[in-house]
C-alpha cells in the first residue's frame, strides 16, 4: 500500500511537470518504478500506459489552443507507431544494465539540446517534401528508441523539433499528440511480454490524468517557451545523473 501511495504521488507531480513539455513522464517513472521493485519490462509497460493517459489529457488542451503542428505530427506519428513495437522486441534481448546506460546517454544528450542549443526560428522555409522526409525520419527514430527504452519517444521529438527551429510550445504540443499513440503501441507490445501490476496501474493512472490536466493548464496559460526549455532540460539531466549514480 505504501509503495502504491509513493508511486501515485510521484506520478502526479512528475506528470504535471512533463506535461508542460509534451513528452510524458515515462522516462522518469521507469527508474522510480524500478526502485520500488517493479520488474524492468513491467515498469516500461506501466510507464508507457501512463504516457498515453497523460498525453491524451494534455493533448486535448493543446488541440483546443491550436498549438499542434499537424503537418509535422501526422507523418511522425505514422512511422513512430510502426517502429515502436520493433524497439520493444529488441529490448527483450538486451541486458538490463546496458539498457539503463543507453537510457542515461539519451537523457544527457536530450537535456543538453534543450539547455544549450538556441536555434534561429526557421519558420516555414523548407519544401513540403523536405518537411515530410524529416518528419518520417524523426518518427522512425522516436518510435524505435521510444519502444526500446520504454519512454514513448516524446523526449526525442521535442528536442529535435526545437532544434529545427519550432517554437517550444508548438514542439511540445506536437510531440504530445504523437506520444499518445506511440506510447499505446509500445505498451501493448511490452504488456504481452511481461506481467502487469494492475493495482499499480490503477493508482498511477488516476494520478497521471490529474497531473497532466494541471501541467497542460500551466503550459498553455502561464509559462513562456524559454521557461519550458529549462524545465525539461534540467529534469532530463537530473534523471540521467540519478540513474548513472545507481549504476556505479
From TrEMBL:
Residues spanning the membrane: 29-51, 72-92, 98-118, 138-162, 174-193, 200-218, 230-247
Primary subcellular site in the record, as a coarse category: membrane
User: What keywords tag this UniProt record?
Assistant: Cell inner membrane, Cell membrane, Membrane, Plasmid, Transmembrane, Transmembrane helix
How this chain sits in the membrane, per its record, is: Multi-pass membrane protein
Origin superkingdom: Bacteria
Q: Does the keyword Metal-binding apply?
A: no
Compartment(s) where it occurs, according to its Swiss-Prot or TrEMBL record: Cell inner membrane; Membrane
The entry sums up its family as follows: Belongs to the 4-toluene sulfonate uptake permease (TSUP) (TC 2.A.102) family.
Q: What is this protein called?
A: Probable membrane transporter protein
Q: Which organism is it from?
A: Kluyvera intermedia (Enterobacter intermedius)
Amino acid at each position: 500500500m505504501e509503495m502504491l501511495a509513493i508511486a501515485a504521488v510521484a506520478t502526479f507531480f512528475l506528470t504535471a511537470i512533463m506535461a508542460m513539455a509534451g513528452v510524458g513522464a515515462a522516462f522518469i517513472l521507469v527508474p522510480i518504478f524500478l526502485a520500488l521493485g517493479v520488474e524492468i519490462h513491467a515498469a516500461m509497460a506501466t510507464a508507457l500506459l501512463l504516457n498515453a493517459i497523460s498525453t491524451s489529457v494534455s493533448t486535448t488542451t493543446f488541440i483546443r489552443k491550436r498549438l499542434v503542428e499537424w503537418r509535422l505530427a501526422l507523418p511522425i506519428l505514422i512511422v513512430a507507431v510502426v517502429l515502436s513495437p520493433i524497439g520493444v522486441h529488441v529490448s527483450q534481448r538486451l541486458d538490463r544494465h546496458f539498457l539503463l546506460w543507453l537510457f542515461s546517454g539519451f537523457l544527457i544528450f536530450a537535456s543538453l539540446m534543450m539547455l544549450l542549443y538556441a536555434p534561429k526560428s526557421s519558420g516555414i522555409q523548407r519544401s513540403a517534401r523536405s518537411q515530410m522526409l524529416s518528419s518520417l525520419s524523426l518518427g522512425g527514430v522516436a518510435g524505435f528508441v521510444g519502444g526500446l527504452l520504454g519512454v514513448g519517444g516524446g523526449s526525442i521529438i521535442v528536442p529535435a523539433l526545437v532544434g529545427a527551429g519550432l517554437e517550444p510550445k508548438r514542439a511540445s504540443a506536437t510531440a504530445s499528440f504523437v506520444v499518445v499513440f506511440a506510447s499505446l503501441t509500445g505498451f501493448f507490445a511490452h504488456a504481452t511480454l511481461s506481467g502487469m501490476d494492475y493495482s499499480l496501474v490503477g493508482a498511477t493512472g488516476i494520478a497521471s490524468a490529474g497531473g497532466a490536466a494541471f501541467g497542460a493548464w500551466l503550459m498553455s496559460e502561464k509559462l513562456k517557451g524559454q521557461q519550458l526549455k529549462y524545465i525539461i532540460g534540467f529534469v532530463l539531466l537530473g534523471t540521467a545523473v540519478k540513474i548513472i549514480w545507481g549504476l556505479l
